[in-house]
Amino acid sequence: MPPLGVECFDDPGAAMNDSRDDDELLELTAAGDRDAFQTLMERHVKSMLMLAQRVSGNSDDAEELVQDAFLKVWTQAPKWRRDGAALFSTWLYRVVLNGCLDRRRRPVWTGLDEAAELADTAPGATQHLAQQQSRVMIQEALAIIPDRQRAALYLHYFSEISAPQAAQVLDISVPAMEALLIRGKRALKKELIRRGVTDLGDML
Amino acid sequence: MTVDGLDTLIRDAFPATDIRHDQVQRVMAGVFARLDQPQPQVPLTFWRRLAQLASDLTPTPQMLVRQAMLPVALGLALGIYLGHMPEDTAPQDELMASLSDPMMTAGY
Predict the structure, then answer these.
(1) Is the pLDDT of residue B59 over 90?
(2) Which of A61, A66, A187, B68 has its CB surrounded by the most CB atoms within 10 Å?
């Protein structure tokens, strides 16, 4: 196998065209096949990065979280049951989401500080600043609501998966997921109102 | 603020961002780099060796269930069989006779 470097990952479309399904690739990964592992990563890395980046708020954290998740895939691959009910992508979403939730328990959100350093004269600076402030306020409000509700909201707003898939990620039924979302939205709304947000206009 | 307002607020504050190709490459290169890192060797102390030995000797829960299945099933079958066996009771007339036996009535 050639040494793995940046030049090896130049064809992301190849992973999508690969006829082998995730389970087959996992089986090969469990046997130590790095090419299969690479194909598996190419197939899922974008959606995982998208979720992690929006939840964690910065790309460095997101990249680290996704790396951790894929390392877990490598180590857990031999234990993966092909006949199990869960899809690999569902399990991977769960790993990334849990990583995000664990990380978000640490108070590292520095959005406002970064926003303050923006040059006032930059085009769209005010808009950017307002968006940054909204993000910080929403993240702070999200940090207060219960973990399960927060996880449901993260999947609903920040991932590209459907409601049934999101329910599988959280290991609950679809009606339970919907109920969790309603409770989460209500709690978030209450928290935002407590912080003085009454409508979109107030935020901007 | 309506629920729709909340949706708009969140979607405006966190717009969907495109994941750049260089980010994807960095993540994948990072994963392989971490896989290739030499794993730190933990010194094998006496207690660690003992714990390792104990864990090697202890069967997994699945193995325990598998091993215990046959004796438990045999015990259960034997219990059911013995439980259904006809009782060896004395005939009624023998019982009556024994009640009227001089040994039983002695002292009255």
Answers:
(1) no
(2) A66
**And the tokens for A129?**
């600043």
Closest CA in chain B for residue A57 = B14
| Rounded CA separation A62/A160 (Å) | 16
Strands (E), chain B: none
Tell me if A70 sits within 8 A of A41, measured CB to CB: yes
CB contact under 8 A, A6 and B25: yes
Pick the residue of A58, A66, A96 with the most B CBs within 10 A to test the interface with B by mutation.
A66
Interface of A with B (CB under 8 A): 4-6, 9, 12, 34, 38, 41-42, 45-46, 49-50, 53-54, 59, 63, 66-67, 70-71, 74, 131, 134-135, 138, 157-158, 185, 188-189, 192-193, 197-200, 203
What is the domain partition of chain B in residue ranges?
A: 45-79
Tokens of B79: 């219990």
User: Which of A130, A193, A131, A200 has the alpha carbon at shortest distance from B4?
Assistant: A200
Q: Is B60 on the interface with A (CB under 8 A)?
A: no
Per-residue pLDDT of chain A (204 residues; tens, 9 = 90+): 444 443 445 555 666 667 788 888 999 999 999 999 999 999 999 999 999 988 888 888 999 999 999 999 999 888 887 666 678 889 999 999 999 888 766 554 444 444 445 455 565 677 778 778 888 888 888 888 998 999 999 999 998 888 899 999 999 999 999 999 999 998 998 888 888 877 644 443
| Residue A142 Cα distances to A66, A146, A185, B52, angstroms | 21, 8, 10, 44
Record the tokens describing residue A101, joined without a space. Answer: 């939730």
* Assembly ipTM: 0.73
Crossing angle of helices B3-13/A147-158, nearest 10°? 70
d(CA B36, nearest CA chain A) in Å: 10
